[in-house]
Amino acid sequence: MVEKHLTPELILEGSKLLQVLDDAGVAPDSALWLYSSDASAWKLLISHVKVGVEGPRDIYRAVQKALQRLRNEVTHLDLDDVTVAKSNAPMIALLSKTISGPGMSGIRLARNVVDGTLIEDAYIYRLKGAA
Fold first, then answer.
1. Global confidence as pTM
2. Which of 34, 54, 64, 116 has the most CB atoms around its CB within 10 Å?
3. Is residue 40 part of a domain?
């Protein structure tokens, strides 16, 4: 389980996972670390349009394969730390109201309120607006 702090190692491992998914043709629409004080943990949220059509199984399978390919490089991140969602998931839609743009990556968003919802902490690799 990912700890209370988002370390540079976790940010790097999330980036490596995203690259392997891109190289495999999965190409998530959005990918970000999201902190929840309720769970006292970070989760890597990955959204893909396919989840809304076919469900999350194939994307979880792709994430698992990518983690297996990275098993010698990724030591802090495992499948339990990843949440797969639809591209129009509420948190993705909410964040898309605040941050968007081509080439946007590596943005930290902490202690912000968007439409009355507190974003405790997030590290955004990519964020594609919900359609």
1. 0.88
2. 34
3. yes
